[in-house]
Amino acid sequence: MAGCVYLTGAGPGDPELLTLKALRVIQAADVILYDNLVNDSILELGRAGVLLIDVGKRCGRHSVPQSEINRLLVEHASAGNNVVRLKGGDPMFFGRATEEMQALQASGIAFEIIPGVTAASAASAALGLSLTRRGIARSVHFLTGHGAEDGLPAHDWVALTRAGGTLVIYMGRETLPGLAAHLIEAGMSPSMPAVAVENASLPSEHITRATLSALPHALRASGAAGPTLILLGEALQSPSTIAATLKMAAAK
Q1: What domain count does the chain have?
Q2: Does the annotation count 171 as an active-site position?
Q3: Annotated active-site residue in 30, 87, 101, 171
Q4: Is residue 251 one of the residues assigned to a domain?
Q5: Are residues 175 and 129 in the same domain?
Q6: What totals of helices (H) and strands (E) does the chain contain, helices first?
Q7: What are all long-range contacts of 60-69, with beta carbons under 8 Å and residues at least 24 apart?
Q8: What is the DSSP secondary-structure string of 118-154?
Q9: Is 87 a catalytic residue?
Q10: For 143-152, how does the pLDDT look when each residue is reduced to its tens digit (9 = 90+)?
């Protein structure tokens, strides 16, 4: 009888941010296929004898093809194993979960999705700033900064600039210079508040604050090499600056 596959979010890194359900399936798994962003301390929560398979995708290095990951999921579940497909953050955020679900459905393999805390939530907590603020930012837009062949995706830069909310860019460290240039060309102010959060929720967490035009240089100077989230928008101003802005708007 075939086993089951659990598409599971490992959260942003801190093991204490795992959901109880994620912890339960990790501890009961026969096989865990994990991404590069999954913290080693989370993998250590698996039971003795669990088969750990590294299927992480690494920028600029050899990666396991998605077709091979799909094949491994089907193979191990078909052998009767309970399989955890462990992804950093939430499995439904830029994690190719749709391709894996389609492969499992095509093979008649049961699966369950277990959400996880996404990096944007951890970054917001680290900054002590809400990504939405009444009168300042009424929307949040999640983007990927990593496209085909390690380039910048073809976003609608003008629409993103006009949206006026907070932009959260995953996997945008390497493409940040081009991303900033496109947004400024589309009309976003070069002085727009910008923040980069490296290794959100971990002891090695590092925050770089700047403006949109200055962040690429500031981030490069910081030497950031870990997973980095880029956040842009007026909601990232200091609370005192926002209070002054709202006061001026009310006076008008």
Answers
A1: 2
A2: yes
A3: 171
A4: no
A5: yes
A6: 9, 10
A7: 60/150, 66/96, 66/99, 66/100, 69/33, 69/100
A8: -HHHHHHHHHT--S-BTTTB--EEEEES--GGG----
A9: no
A10: 999 876 667 8
Mark whether 188 is an active-site residue.
no
Could you tell me if 166 and 194 are in contact, meaning their C-beta atoms sit under 8 angstroms apart?
no
Stated as kind and residue range, the H or E segment containing 198 is strand 193-198
CA angle 84, 88, 90 (to 5 degrees): 85
> Could you give the CA distance from residue 221 to residue 223 in angstroms, rounded to a whole number?
5
Q: Check whether residue 138 and residue 166 sit in a common domain.
A: yes
In a domain, 250, yes or no: no
- 115 φ, ψ (degrees, to nearest 5): -60, 160
What is the number of residues in the chain?
252
Return contacts of 124-127, CB within 8 angstroms, 24+ apart. 125/201, 126/197, 126/200, 126/201, 126/205, 126/207, 127/195, 127/197, 127/207, 127/231, 127/236
User: What is the three-class DSSP state of 197?
Assistant: strand
Which of 30, 35, 90, 188 is labelled catalytic? Answer: 35
Structure tokens at 212: 């949109």
> The whole model's pTM is what?
0.88
Owning domain of residue 11: 4-114
> What is the C-alpha separation between 103 and 57, in angstroms, rounded?
19
Q: Report pLDDT digits (tens) over 79-119.
A: 999 999 999 999 999 989 999 999 999 999 999 999 999 99
Which CATH number covers residue 63?
A: 3.40.1010.10
Q: Residue 169 maps to which CATH number?
A: 3.30.950.10
Nearest-angstrom CA–CA distance, 159 and 178: 17
Judgement on whether residues 137 and 197 belong to the same structural domain of the protein: yes
Residue pair 172/228 in contact (Cβ under 8 Å)? The answer is yes
